[in-house]
């Protein structure tokens, strides 16, 4: 409760203490956690790193908000759950945001406005965006005390709905919304490595391969001896990506879409697994098979691991393709995938 010099006798005491009312409180904020985030950002210097990738065309004599301050404000807004740049209209006066940007909570000019943020977000051209992407990878690599002997990179695309007329937005029938579909890359410990904003459609093989090539080359600049294992869902299992992984010496495990030729290799296993489950119903029964397979568009045969599962909900068969050698199919599959068929975090083979 706020303290006041006026006591209101109508309010009953609480645990023997008087309840006071007051209307003379200072500016308030519900985002006090930004003071902790401020310390992290000051130590990492991420906003300044990104600002250094941009060319500021403004007249220095008329600049009130540096690019670093604008980017830092935008980072703080997103971290606090304010995704819309229009929120800056109110937040530019918020005490916590002012402290996070090294301003006094009650004195001095306000933070930058929404139009200023919009101009900053539309400032980078293609080359500047590439520089910013490279800086994020450098930021990730420098976060390690020493280069790791191996890392796992999980690559995927995710849908990001929009509610305006932003450039590059497309309608995605699966999500029944307009939005973007950025590619994001995390390592096996859940740390963000890089991201690429793009339209809301599934990336084709050439686009995926180009993004992976830039990513791996940048990591190799800082960690030339680090072994990399790349994991992704089936729509990244394209001839371009597979050949790129072979050319760059990457280990990989990709989901593989079902087809008739794959089914021929495991039809007997599926039948025997179903018959065995009928004899001992109840628990799920899982069996594995590894074999060589080459799609017509592939440059060479590759190792495929099939997992056949039969349970109360019926039969479920999944495939992965990998260039990892040694070990039985069951051992490799269970290391790389969970029981639900999703990529397992924290897994290094």
Q: How would you characterize the overall build of this protein?
A:
The chain has 349 residues and is of the alpha+beta class. The chain has 11 helices and 11 strands. It has helices at residues 34-44, 46-51, 67-79, 88-91, 95-100, 114-121, 126-142, 205-222, 239-248, 260-279, 329-336, and strands at residues 150-157, 160-161, 170-172, 177-180, 183-187, 192-196, 227-232, 251-256, 285-293, 302-311, 314-322. The protein is globular and about 80 Å long. Residues 4-8 and 338-349 have low confidence and may be disordered.
What gyration radius follows from the Cα positions, in whole Å?
Answer: 27 Å
Order of helices and strands: HHHHHHHEEEEEEHEHEHEEEH
List segments where confidence is low: pLDDT < 50 over at least 5 consecutive residues. Answer: 4-8, 338-349
In whole angstroms, the N-to-C terminal distance is 56 Å
What percent strand? 15-25%
CATH class of the largest domain: Alpha Beta
As a percent range, the share of helical residues equals 25-40%
Give me the number of helical elements: 11
Spatial shape? globular
Main pleated-sheet profile? 8 strands, mixed
Counted up, domains total 3
């Amino acid at each position: 409760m706020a303290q006041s010099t006026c006591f209101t006798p109508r309010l009953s005491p609480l645990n023997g203490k008087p309840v006071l009312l007051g209307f003379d409180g200072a500016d308030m904020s519900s985002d006090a956690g930004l003071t902790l985030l401020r310390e992290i950002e000051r130590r990492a210097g991420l906003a300044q790193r990104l600002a250094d990738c941009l060319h500021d065309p403004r007249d220095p004599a008329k600049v009130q908000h540096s690019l670093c301050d604008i980017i830092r404000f935008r980072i703080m807004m997103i971290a606090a759950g304010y995704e819309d740049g229009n929120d800056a209209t109110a937040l530019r006066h918020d005490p916590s945001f002012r402290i996070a940007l090294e301003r006094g909570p009650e004195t001095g000019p306000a933070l930058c406005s929404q139009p200023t943020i919009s101009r900053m977000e539309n400032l980078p051209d293609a080359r500047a965006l590439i520089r910013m992407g490279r800086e994020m990878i450098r930021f990730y690599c420098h976060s390690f005390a020493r280069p790791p002997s191996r890392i796992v990179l999980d690559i995927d695309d995710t849908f990001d709905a929009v509610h305006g007329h932003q450039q590059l937005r497309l309608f995605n029938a699966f999500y029944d919304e307009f939005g973007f579909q950025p590619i994001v890359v995390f390592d096996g410990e859940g740390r963000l490595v890089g991201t690429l904003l793009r339209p809301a459609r599934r990336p084709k093989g050439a686009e995926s391969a180009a993004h992976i090539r830039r990513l791996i080359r940048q990591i190799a600049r800082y960690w030339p001896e680090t072994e990399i294992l790349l994991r992704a869902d089936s729509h990244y299992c394209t001839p371009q990506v597979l050949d790129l992984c072979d050319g760059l010496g990457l280990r990989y495990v990709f989901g593989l879409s079902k087809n008739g030729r794959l089914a021929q290799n495991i039809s007997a296993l599926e039948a025997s697994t179903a018959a065995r489950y009928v004899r001992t119903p109840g628990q799920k029964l899982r069996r594995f098979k590894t074999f060589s397979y080459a799609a017509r568009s592939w440059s060479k045969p590759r190792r495929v691991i099939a997992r056949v599962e039969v349970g109360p909900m019926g039969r479920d068969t999944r495939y992965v393709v990998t260039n990892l050698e040694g070990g039985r199919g069951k051992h490799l599959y269970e290391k790389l995938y969970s029981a639900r068929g999703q990529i397992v975090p924290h897994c290094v083979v």
